[in-house]
Every structure is written in structure tokens, then in C-alpha cells.
Amino acid sequence: MLWKATALKGRVIAASDGKLGTVSDLLFDDVSWQLRWLVVDTGHWLPGHKVLLPMSVLGHLELMQKEFPVRLTMQQVKDSPGIDTERPVSRQMETSIYDYYGWTPYWGNGLFTNGYGIVGGYGVRVAGGTLSSPGGADAGHEREIADAQRDRDDHHLRSVNAVIDYRIRARDGEIGHVEDFLVEDGDWTIHYLIVDTQNWWPGKRVLVSPRSASEINWSEKLVKLNVDRKKIKDSPPYDPSTTVDRAYEMQFRDHYGDALPEPRPAPAVAP
Q1: Which residue, 124, 171, 195, 203, is most buried by CB atoms nearer than 10 A?
Q2: 217-265: per-residue pLDDT in tens?
Q3: 160 contacts: CB under 8 Å, gap ≥ 6
Q4: Average pLDDT in the 199-228 region?
Q5: Domains in the chain, start-ordered, CATH in brackets?
Q6: Dihedral of CA 126/176/265/34: which sign?
Q7: How many helices (H) and strands (E) would you count in the chain?
């Protein structure tokens, strides 16, 4: 079943002995286009504290579900590693969470490569496309900080909150902005970007496959596509009020055909 990513936000995460909090954001991998983490705001129960939980804790969901039960206790979550919302999520942080719960990480076979981006919603100050230290440090020291940080940060993880509203640019010009994502709850893969076409095609929304995305430019808040605007305009019409079914997906794939590149290799996901 396809879910809007934003439909998961605000849902209550319920432990075996109480309510943990609500989903405030989701983090996805911009290589595999899979949702990796729920960002859970613990609210009044644990003020000022946010925790990460892997998507796998959700199990099978029902559309009308308002609470998502997880097989954890409140004490387990309270003692889990917290996250610093002012910084990107590092591989070290991911590892500490998996180690704490005794879970197998999604990169279990070691297939993971560094990318070109940074978590949009949990970033640090940037300058010229590199990480920047606070004012007063000399250039050499800044480079050392940047190099060390690049080794620690997971450059593929991006915030859904941050990427929503990113501009979308086809080969021959901009077409609008990211309004939402459609996500398959079987493996939590992003199947489509929902694009509000704004002034280019007023009142219309279109679906774009992430396989058409050639780059996410975090500094420009821009998603670049490797298809032209006419190809997108002639694609199967999208009605937000109807369900995207198998027939639509087949029509969509037939339309793009060879225009869709082969997907980039993705890290293996542990069962």
C-alpha cells in the first residue's frame, strides 16, 4: 500500500506500557530512496527529547490507525541514545541505536558509499558546499573539522520535513516543488515524489519517480531530474483524491520507458 509520507507524521507511537510520543519527521536514504528512521518527539513525557526508531518497528499498518504499537517499553526508549537535532545523524549514532536495542543494522553487509548531500533538517552551518565551523577558526582548522565531520555523518540521510518544498528542475527548466512522497509500506521505499507544478502548470500535481532524480542539491534546496518538462506534462494524470493502483503504475512505467534510468545500487536491508 502507498502512503503519503506526511500521513505518518503526528501518529502516536505506543510502547507496551504507554505512549512514547508522536512522529515528527522521517529520514530517508537518497541512494536507495528508502525511509530509514522515524523521528519521535517524546513530548510532555520526556520534554525536549527526540529518539530515532527504524521503520521496521512499525510492522503492518492500517490506514485508519492513529496509534502505531511497537514492541518496546517506555524505559527502554528513555534510556536509548537521543539525537541532536542541530546535527546530521551520523553513522556512529545509527550504530549506537542498533547496538542498544540489539537490532541488525540495514547496512549489515557493509555496502555503503559516501554521497553528495547532508540531512536537510538536521544540518550544520555550511559554506561553499563544505561543513563550516563557528567563526574565528582559521581555514586549516575548518578543513580539519570538515574532513572529520564527513567521516562521521551519514551523508545519504535526509529529512522528509526539509526536502518537502524543495524546488524541482527538469532538464529544460523548473516545474514546481516537492509537496509530498508516496511510500510503499512493504519495504518503506519512496515510489513517487508528489510535485505541485505551481506557475508552470497551475492547479496540477504530477508524480515523478525518484529514479528520474539525478541529484538532490541541499545548498540550493533543489531536486534535479534527468527528464524534460514535456515528458512530465504528458505523463499519466495524477488525482490526489484517488488511489495509485497497479494499473496506474503500469501506465506510468510504460510512459517513461527507457527515460527512467536504472536505480542506483542500494545498501542491503536486513530482514
Answers
A1: 195
A2: 989 999 999 999 999 999 999 998 888 998 999 999 999 985 454 443 4
A3: 5, 6, 9, 25, 26, 27, 28, 35, 181
A4: 93
A5: 1-161 (2.30.30.240), 164-259 (3.90.50.10)
A6: positive
A7: 7, 15
State mean pLDDT over 102-121: 50
Q: Would strands 157-159 and 173-184 be described as parallel, antiparallel, or unpaired?
A: unpaired
Q: List the beta strands (DSSP E) in the chain.
A: 2-4, 12-15, 18-29, 34-41, 50-54, 67-69, 126-127, 130-131, 157-159, 167-170, 173-184, 189-196, 205-208, 213-217, 222-225
Cα distance between residue 240 and residue 206, in whole Å: 9
C-alpha cell of 105? 543494522
Question: How much is the pTM?
Answer: 0.76
According to DSSP, residue 186 is labeled T
Question: CB under 8 Å, gap of 24 or more: what pairs does 250-253 form?
Answer: 252/207, 252/209
Measured CA to CA, the distance from residue 196 to residue 184 in angstroms comes to: 20
Between 41-55, 137-151, 227-241, the lowest mean confidence (pLDDT) is in: 137-151
57-62 contact pairs (CB < 8 A, 24+): 58/185, 60/185, 61/1, 61/3, 61/185
Residues 6+ apart with CB under 8 A from 191: 2, 182, 183, 184, 209, 210, 244, 249
| Phi then psi dihedrals of residue 146, to 5 deg | -60, -45
Q: What is the pLDDT of residue 23?
A: 94
Phi, psi of 223 (to 5 degrees): -105, 120
